[in-house]
Amino acid sequence: MLIRYKRNYEKIAMGLLSFVPTEKDLKKLQQTMKEYEQNEHWQLYLWKQEEDIIGIVGISMLDKSLIEVQHVSVNPSHRQQGIGKKMIKALKEMYTTAQIKPSEIIAPFYEKCQADE
Q1: Nearest Cα residue to 72 out of 30, 98, 107, 36
Q2: Where does the sequence pass through the membrane (predicted)?
Q3: What are the start-end ranges of the E strands in the chain?
Q4: At residue 52, what are phi and psi to the nearest 5 degrees?
Q5: pLDDT tens, 10-44?
């Protein structure tokens, strides 16, 4: 289940985002977190399974009808279980009136999700 990011999840969110290749550098990761916390057009969602938060997906709302997926990350011990695909599907269910497209970095994964539908 997708839940909206809150400040008390910051360490978990940073940990999950640090698995994204473009977010390896601490300063870059901190800038990204700041963007999600301060920019009203950027939203971060965590994937909660039972009591554990095991995935994260970040979006930017380019306008009311267009959303770009910026980040997708799943805890390595939970990969290859379809969690990323479930997060993308949940985003589509959440934003039914908007077109959802991947950022350049996320595109290969996003296209794989589409092919598997």
Answers
A1: 107
A2: none
A3: 2-4, 42-49, 52-63, 66-74, 99-102
A4: -105, 145
A5: 999 999 999 998 998 999 999 999 999 999 999 99
